Amino acid sequence: MDTVTQDLVNQGKMLPLMEEFYTIQGEGFHTGTAAYFIRVGGCDVGCHWCDVKESWNADLHPPTSINTISEAASKHGKTVVVTGGEPLMWDMEPLTTELVRAGMKVHIETSGAYEPSGHWDWFCLSPKKTKLPVDKAYELADELKMIIYNKHDFEFAEQQAAKVGAKTHLFLQPEWSKREQVTPLIVDYVMNNPKWRVSLQTHKYLNIP
Fold it and tell me: Which fold has domain 3-205?
């Protein structure tokens, strides 16, 4: 990457774009609603069960102008979800400014491991044990989405729920490869702890992106 491009990436005016697509939100609070997804490359959180490991290396994804990204997004509905990778590795202020200017509602899905930047209408926080969220991420969280891989993850979920605000929506979601084993555990847990709700990766059941 040449110096000029690197400077633009560092400023958030270009981002390593892995993919972008219009689909149905499959997880969490907004399940079943249409949204345009912007997947940004780069992540060092290192979840062993991550289903988009190809997003980890930002160098594999072309630096793309935020104007180009925003223009494409504005052609598809009114809701944009910025995800990754870990989008907060980059300065999100320029991109979200453009998206807001285009009249979009802007959501993020993040581990919260980096200081938040940007303007967000919805902040979905999904903490990971390998790199815990910064304090500001807990404060901003509209939604807490905890991935359950085994029974020990329920304790971690409760630890994280204790750090978010009273109005944050709480979700437990089975890790896809373990769904048959852990979904019954989640159902029982939610029935006994009704502050939580079940989230499923419905887009995978529907066979859509």
Answer: TIM Barrel (3.20.20)
